[in-house]
Design a protein that fits this description.
Length: 525
């Protein structure tokens, strides 16, 4: 499932992606007047809960005549649209999507630098700069302000190595020409910021708004530091990203972006401003506002009639976010590659359920040695991605489908015994400052630089410390009760004769017990 996308558009941009979505019947334009203050967020929440299309709001209060009048959201909020971005059929399974991105991330395609592009059409400086010209929503009722940076690309560069980082970090409008940013030292740009602070210099930054959705998809993914996000975007699209140099620094940004905000962040804490609260990815209301670093804007370049791209944060049962797709497909693929790169054998599948947005991870293995699950947890917990992800790790064997909650529950019930090493805790370690299960005093960035987590490994594999039992054909656990294969074949052959069928089941149960599942259980059906 890792073939490149055919018939790639001549221009790779948000506009080419919008055209692709429209062509697939996956986008709606909203002409009704909507309010940037909570209403856009509420509409977006309901739309994603219904599995609805990508949306472009074209009539936003206070923005009928501003520089930017349109806002797009929900571009990657479903599996079908994630598959479309990857150039795969809409019916591609979750498992195949993860495998596809795993393979694509092994085939980097470097960007190219061009002289100019549509994003250079208009250049704003000094008094021309006004963030009020952009329809940044106040997404949730308790948010501390209008959040402009929710689904963009934050570009910084390591001042020692020159390596660029493209991340996805929230940002709140803090004035006409200022954006307050949440930053942690364990993040890619946090390391860059630390080096600039040590030298007493301000850090250049470019915020890319409205390029192809592959940009926030990769910018929000926890690649190891050695990997360039532009290379990953090129690999997914099957063509190199075209970059152009910024006006005020040596940073490079997509030539076809909708608009780019250029500026710098001063490491002096006296320049910090209050940021938050913001209802972020855990699905809870944000905590108290606190002083954060500020992007002082020096320049904005933009296309004619630019389109803003934004995303609603916070997933909970029945109410996904765009992070849900990132979690399920990109983050799972990256974690799988991390395990392989660390030399972990026998990994068959990796799954981060969409609703948990990275906090929990399930790894399926062919168990090959005692301590296999512990090795997996150690690898994941030791990565920089562990700042936000992998709080709880569950390891299963090949007979348990990691995407089947019922199978996971069964394995948890009958293969896990805490007194026999089935549950391991580790910590306190570093962890997410946004996790509401962490005491507020342990999520103090100024004191700890991060937050404190105690992590959990659930080893739901069969315990190799048990003696092999000759009564169980040399197994360590009693065998699973199952039908004789001959009886299975007999039932399969007479199923229609029995007259049971599945028509009597309600729609949900019918979905779970499809003919395909019958075939998996009874191959001759």
């Amino acid at each position: 499932m890792s073939g490149r996308k055919a018939n790639a558009p001549q221009e790779t941009s948000l506009r080419s992606w919008i055209s692709q979505l429209e062509g697939a019947g996956q986008l709606r334009r909203i002409g009704a007047r909507v309010d940037w203050d909570e209403e856009i967020g509420a509409i977006t929440r309901a739309n994603m809960a219904l599995g609805g299309p990508a949306l472009i709001f074209e009539n936003i209060r206070d923005h009928a005549d501003t520089l930017c009048t349109r806002l797009m959201t929900c571009g990657l909020s479903t599996r079908e649209r994630t598959a479309l971005m990857a150039g795969l059929p809409a019916e591609t399974s979750d498992k195949d999507l993860v495998r596809h991105f795993k393979d694509r991330y092994r085939a980097p395609l470097a960007p190219i630098v061009v002289d100019s592009g549509p994003v250079k059409k208009n250049v704003l400086r000094d008094n021309q700069i006004d963030l009020g010209q952009f329809p940044a929503p106040r997404w949730h009722g308790k948010d501390g302000g209008r959040y402009i940076d929710t689904y963009c690309g934050i570009v910084t560069k390591d001042p020692e190595t020159g390596r660029a980082n493209v991340g996805l970090y929230r940002g709140m409008v803090a004035g006409r020409n200022k954006i307050a940013k949440l930053m942690l030292p364990t993040q890619g740009w946090g390391g860059h910021f630390g080096k600039h602070r040590n030298s007493g210099k301000k850090m250049p930054i470019a915020i890319v708004h409205g390029w192809h959705d592959v940009m926030p998809f990769c910018a929000g993914s926890p690649f190891p530091r050695r990997i360039c996000e532009w290379d990953m975007m090129g690999s997914i699209l099957g063509r190199p990203v075209e970059l152009v140099k910024c006006e005020t620094s040596d940073l490079e940004v997509p030539a076809n972006a909708e608009f780019v905000i250029e500026g710098f962040i001063d490491p002096d804490p006296e320049t910090f401003v209050m940021e938050g609260p913001f209802a972020d990815y855990p699905g809870h209301e944000g905590g108290k506002p606190s002083p954060k670093p500020v992007v002082q804007i020096e320049c904005i370049t933009h296309r004619d009639n630019p389109i803003m791209r934004g995303a609603l944060e916070g997933a909970r049962p029945g109410l996904p976010s765009e992070d849900s797709a990132l979690c399920a497909y990109s983050w799972s693929a990256i974690a799988w590659n991390m395990l392989e790169d660390a030399g972990v054998d026998g990994v068959l599948d990796v799954w981060m359920p969409p609703v948990v947005t990275g906090m929990n991870i399930v790894v399926q293995i062919q168990k090959r040695y005692h301590g296999h699950a512990q090795q997996i947890a150690n690898v994941l917990w030791g990565t920089s991605a562990g700042q936000w992800f992998f709080k709880n790790v569950m390891v299963l064997e090949e007979d348990i489908d990691p995407r089947d909650w019922e199978a996971r529950e069964w394995a948890m019930a009958f293969r896990v015994n805490a007194s026999e090493g089935g549950v391991t805790t580790f910590g306190p370690t570093f962890g997410s400052v946004l996790d509401p299960s962490t005491k507020p005093e342990y999520a103090d960035i100024r004191k700890y630089g991060t937050a404190r987590w105690t992590r959990v490994l659930i080893d739901a594999t069969r315990n190799w410390t048990f003696e092999r039992n000759p009564e169980w054909d040399g197994r360590r656990m009693s065998p699973i009760a199952s039908m004789d294969p001959e009886l299975e074949r007999k039932i399969a052959g007479r199923w229609d004769e029995y007259g049971i069928g599945i028509d009597y089941l309600d729609e949900e149960m019918r979905e779970r017990l499809t003919l395909e599942k019958l075939r998996q259980r009874f191959p001759e059906v």
